[in-house]
Predict the structure.
Amino acid sequence: FSGWVAPVNRMLQDLNLPPLVNKRPSADEVLSALKCIEARVSPQKSTQTHKPNLDLPLGFEMPSPELRDIAVVLRLLHGKELRDLQCNVNEILSQLQNITADPKTDSRLGRVGR
């Protein structure tokens, strides 16, 4: 296991974990270090399912709670799309105002006061 110390310590250092201190670690120490690395790298497996709180006003009644949740999610997504659309419209209006509200006079076009 002494040949494993350098690579394992490098991985531990990259993950901000304490390194192996012994030059000749036991099999249990190396196994513990590898388990720590695996716990840091692999995604957590959860047995619980997270359901967001969807107690938002819908505006109409739905026959079942599942359909109501679906309708609330669709309403939230529609609101997000409307916000994105409004941002795009505001940006286009701002660009158009930069073009049209830039007064430049061209004296070749005519005389003032005539």
About this structure: The helical segments are 5-14, 27-41, 65-100.
